[in-house]
Amino acid sequence: MSMLLLLLLLSPVIVMAERCHPDDKAAILKIKNSFSNGPQLLPWTADIDCCSRFDCDETTNRVIDFSLTNTDLAGTIPDAIGDLTYLKTLRLHKMPFLIGEIPRAITKLKHVTFFDISWTNVSGHVPSFLSELKSVMFIDLSFNNLSGPIPPSLATLPNMIGLELGRNRLTGSIPESFGHLTSPALQGIGLSHNMLSGEIPKSIGNMIIYRFEVSRNNLSGDASMLFGSWKNTSVIDISRNNFEFDLSRVSFMVDSLVTLDISHNKIYGEIPSQILEVYMLQSLNVSYNRLCGKIPSPWKLKYRSEGFEFDNSSFVHNKCLCGSPLPQCK
Ligand SMILES: *[C@@H]1O[C@H](CO)[C@@H](O)[C@H](O)[C@H]1NC(C)=O
Ligand SMILES: *[C@@H]1O[C@H](CO)[C@@H](O)[C@H](O)[C@H]1NC(C)=O
Ligand SMILES: *[C@@H]1O[C@H](CO)[C@@H](O)[C@H](O)[C@H]1NC(C)=O
Ligand SMILES: *[C@@H]1O[C@H](CO)[C@@H](O)[C@H](O)[C@H]1NC(C)=O
Ligand SMILES: *[C@@H]1O[C@H](CO)[C@@H](O)[C@H](O)[C@H]1NC(C)=O
Ligand SMILES: *[C@@H]1O[C@H](CO)[C@@H](O)[C@H](O)[C@H]1NC(C)=O
């Protein structure tokens, strides 16, 4: 009887046992207090178990996922985030009042695989010390107020799968090092809506990459190295730049290309009829270039109904393209 009573008394204690590591709790309270409106917006208190609010590792009980999204927290990125040393995911997303630079303290996150600071007002450069995050697989710094060049050292990240730097104010050129990325598993690069200039390094042509997006920059010269029928690229968007090369010379990725947008450049030559073999193509735009010759047909598109032709808006405003869906060739 007394044994049962003892169990009854103990059980709530067992259920309530705190998992949160004291170091993580201290870091989380520091993070909260570093925002001017943190105490007002964040309900975390010293008596809360941080593992009830954040994902902790099952065995070590260390916080592995720290995500703040859609919040008006105001201030800079707290250095104390670097004290959550076991993080695998850091996500600061849709925080319009998050300002200042990305602090060096985040290089303490040696286990982070998913690094996302997006849709904030973080400014300054894309720090080259991000290359110290050796475990990182995804970096998303899109929709911020970042300026300056892309650090070449990002190409040394051995596990990187995706890099999103779109919608910032980045300048300079795409680093030559990107053609020699050490990660064998790179899936995508997104650099759209910046102020990048210069040519795409030739070496990028050696990369097997799934998605390459650089629209709305001021890139120039040749982009033909992105193509090649042996590659398995699925998405290419180089629209709204100053690219100038002969499209007649390229071959398309027959088994993989789904989206191709090269609109608003100075691309010349003809559309190779080999494009008709790209059966997965769902979106095509070659408008506003200097192309000539007959638009290839008939399309053999797997995901389009029989007899489908692309809309004429995919082809308009070229030098002398002709044939359906544009007017007949003379
Ligand atoms: C950055 O701040 C400006 C002005 O306060 C705001 O309009 C904009 O939405 C913010 N940007 C983001 C991505 O939240
Ligand atoms: C973006 O950063 C610049 C400094 O690089 C600053 O002058 C500007 O106010 C920032 N914009 C916003 C919306 O915070
Ligand atoms: C774009 O780059 C060209 C050189 O390729 C330069 O003449 C032009 O001024 C640049 N435009 C902008 C808006 O930066
Ligand atoms: C593309 O091809 C490479 C090498 O053949 C392969 O490692 C990679 O997984 C492929 N990617 C996709 C998205 O199919
Ligand atoms: C192609 O791009 C032009 C110019 O940006 C745009 O007006 C048109 O709607 C696009 N067409 C398609 C089918 O994407
Ligand atoms: C494109 O098609 C629309 C109707 O679908 C037509 O009004 C327009 O004149 C065509 N433009 C060109 C350049 O063929």
Strand order of the largest sheet: 1-2-4-6-8-10-12-14-16-18-20
CATH architecture assignment: Alpha-Beta Horseshoe
Give a quick account of the main beta sheet: strands, pairing sense, barrel closure: 11 strands, mixed
Q: What is the number of helices?
A: 4
Count of domains: 1
Q: Structural class of the secondary elements?
A: alpha/beta
Q: Name the CATH class.
A: Alpha Beta
Q: What compounds are bound to the protein? A: 2-acetamido-2-deoxy-beta-D-glucopyranose
What is the CATH H-level superfamily?
Ribonuclease Inhibitor
What Rg do the Cα atoms give?
26 Å
Parts with pLDDT < 50 across at least 5 consecutive residues: 11-15
Strand content: 15-25%
Number of strands: 22
- The rounded distance between the terminal residues' Cα atoms is 102 Å
- CATH fold assignment: Leucine-rich repeat, LRR (right-handed beta-alpha superhelix)
This entry's quaternary arrangement is: single chain
**Overall mean pLDDT score?**
91
Give the CA-based shape.
elongated
What's the short story on this structure?
This protein is an alpha/beta fold and 330 residues long. It is built from four helices and 22 strands.
Report on this structure.
A hairpin with a 6-residue loop joins β1 (55-56) and β2. The protein contains four helices and 22 strands. An eleven-stranded mixed sheet has the order 1-2-4-6-8-10-12-14-16-18-20. A three-stranded parallel sheet has the order 7-9-11, with no helix packed on it. The chain has a three-stranded parallel sheet with strand order 13-15-17, with no helix packed on it. It is of the alpha/beta class and 330 residues long. The chain starts with a helix and ends in an 8-residue tail after the last strand. Mean pLDDT is 91; it is low at 11-15. The protein has one domain (19-322): Ribonuclease Inhibitor (Leucine-rich repeat, LRR (right-handed beta-alpha superhelix), Alpha-Beta Horseshoe). The radius of gyration is 26 Å and the shape is elongated. The structure holds 2-acetamido-2-deoxy-beta-D-glucopyranose (NAG) (6 copies). One 2-acetamido-2-deoxy-beta-D-glucopyranose binds next to β15.
